[in-house]
Amino acid sequence: MNKNNHANTAILIGGGMAGKLIAAAISPYFSKVQIFEKDNKPLQEKEIRPGVSQANQIHVLLQAGDHALETLFPGFKRDMVSRGSIQIDSVKDMAWFHYGSWKQRYRSELTTLLQTRRLLESYVEEKINQFENVTYTYGVKVENYLIENGRVCGVITKQETFRADLVIDTSGASAMSKSSIGQAVPEEKVEIGLCYATRQFELTERERDFKLKLIYPEAPQQKLGGTMSMIENQKYTVTLIGYLNSIDPAAIRTEEGFSQYAKKLPLQDFAQELEGGKSLTETKIYQIPHIVWRRFDQIQLPEGLLVAGDSFCRVDPVFGQGMSVAALEALAIKEFFEVTPKHMNLNKLQKKLAKIVAPVWSMVLCEDFRYEAVKGKRPFGLKFQQWYVKEIFLLSAKNRKIYDEFIKVMNLVSPPTILFKPYILKEVLKRKG
Predict the structure, then answer these.
(1) All residues at 6 or more sequence positions from 212 whose CB lies less than 8 Å from its CB, including other chains
(2) Vertex 48, ends 47 and 49: CA angle to 5°?
(3) CATH architecture of 189-289
(4) Contact, 139 vs 39, CB < 8 A?
(5) Is 84 exposed, middle or buried (CB count within 10 Å of its CB: 0-12, 13-18, 19+)?
(6) Three-point CA angle 345, 350, 351, nearest 5°
(7) Between the CA atoms of 26, 30, 31 and 37, what dihedral angle is there, to the nearest 10 degrees?
(8) pTM above 0.70, yes or no
């Protein structure tokens, strides 16, 4: 690809996973890529920045996310496993209790990587630092855009002004762009009152038939659920989740409080495991009062600006799809710049990113709105969608063919529309009859 056909300098606001992945994706098409991260550089190697509030939870890369990172960093999966990531069969190695039933377990071709954020992010940053034209600068807070004749031409920081041909906002959930482009941005906001509480454990030595165990709350009557995941060095990360402020952060901070909440889950699996285990960390709290999709795709953004990652859409993290969505966005941006000349229509690209977000957002809303107290605009046809999806949930616990399709949708390798295949529709209607 002739680089002269493309812009020269790109700036990314925010150095989280989305910023890093997009920097890698666009590096072949820009002579200079600068990442500005407002946090200071961690003092120790592999230490997580203070701005990554979700750092202590398990970080799962779904099949689509694995594929995306393998494309950006060839050898990614091999490298991560060699460093301690746990690669699992997404069906056989995952024990999933969902709507009153355990999902089926059998060998499949779908894989998932389990690891701490510390391991994943340190690897990605190491790879980023190997790109000669990419610079990652800590301790630089972008305060505003440099706008000339309606075009974003760079960024303004406290220290100085930096010019660029492209600026990408990956600043995170606060999204700098929502208040800095001089126009209102429509947004879909849903109040879920979600709280994560996480501890790392050393469990008793014994044979376990899972590497990842999920106990999902059955809405609307249950609000508490949890995940237990193997991570590097044979340790386990245990996260308890509660919707609609059903977890009191003060009460769950102690080890005893954590244990008491584990006993309130729909099953006693976690409580029993923790009884013989040793807690290695304090309880880490991560609260998500709301999720939001800022519809930058529905307005005419200033030329030279793109919004991605959590700045564009922050989904419910319970479903483990956020990081994989960011990776898919990075691939879409890479594909765009492979064929798009210097005078680029970024609004077209913003709409392309929206097509990645839309099915995930729809799946999340379908589940979150099963709680009547969740506040937000309910999409058209929600009741039918919730009924149909619940039928799929129930069928997938017994029908292997349907579960094969369902797990592909959850791993973002197939669109949700495959769940309306004639044979699946027939099975759903048979249940209704």
Answers:
(1) 60, 88, 93, 94, 95, 112, 114, 227, 228, 229, 230
(2) 120
(3) 2-Layer Sandwich (3.30)
(4) yes
(5) middle
(6) 100
(7) -60
(8) yes
Contact of 191 with 369, CB cutoff 8 Å: no
Domains of the chain, residue spans: 3-49+120-186+295-356, 189-289, 366-432
- Counting beta carbons within 10 angstroms of the beta carbon of residue 231, is it exposed (0 to 12), middle (13 to 18) or buried (19 or more)? buried
d(CA 263, CA 261): 5
The angle at the Cα of 237, spanning 53 to 204, to the nearest 5 degrees, equals 155
Burial of 94-111, coded b for 16+ CB within 10 Å and e otherwise, reads bbbbbeeeebbeeebebb
Q: What are 133's two structure tokens?
A: 């034209």
DSSP string for residues in 46-88:
TPPPTT-TTTTS-EEE-HHHHHHHHHHSTTHHHHHHHHT-EEE
Give the dihedral sign, CA 50/286/283/228: negative
- Cross-strand pairs, 156: 144, 161
For the chain, how big is the Rg over CA atoms in Å? 22
Instruction: Report CA dihedral (123, 127, 129, 134) to the nearest 10 degrees.
Output: -130
The pLDDT tens digits along the chain (433 residues) read: 333 344 599 999 999 899 999 999 999 999 999 999 998 877 666 566 666 655 566 778 888 888 999 999 999 999 999 999 999 999 999 999 999 999 999 999 888 899 988 889 889 989 999 999 999 999 999 999 999 998 999 999 988 999 999 999 999 877 677 777 878 899 999 999 999 999 999 999 888 999 999 999 999 999 999 999 999 988 999 999 999 999 999 999 999 999 999 999 999 999 999 998 999 999 999 999 999 999 999 999 999 999 999 999 999 888 888 889 999 999 999 999 988 765 568 999 999 999 999 999 999 999 999 999 999 999 999 999 999 999 999 999 999 999 999 999 998 999 999 999 999 999 999 887 6
Cα–Cα distance, 248 to 238 (Å, whole number)? 17
Residues in the chain: 433
Q: What angle do CA 7, 11, 14 make, to 5 degrees?
A: 155
Report whether CATH 3.50.50.60 matches the domain 3-49+120-186+295-356. yes
* H-run or E-run covering 284: strand 284-294
**210: region left, alpha or beta (phi > 0 left; psi from -120 to 50 alpha):** beta
Integer Cα distance of 185 and 171 in angstroms: 16
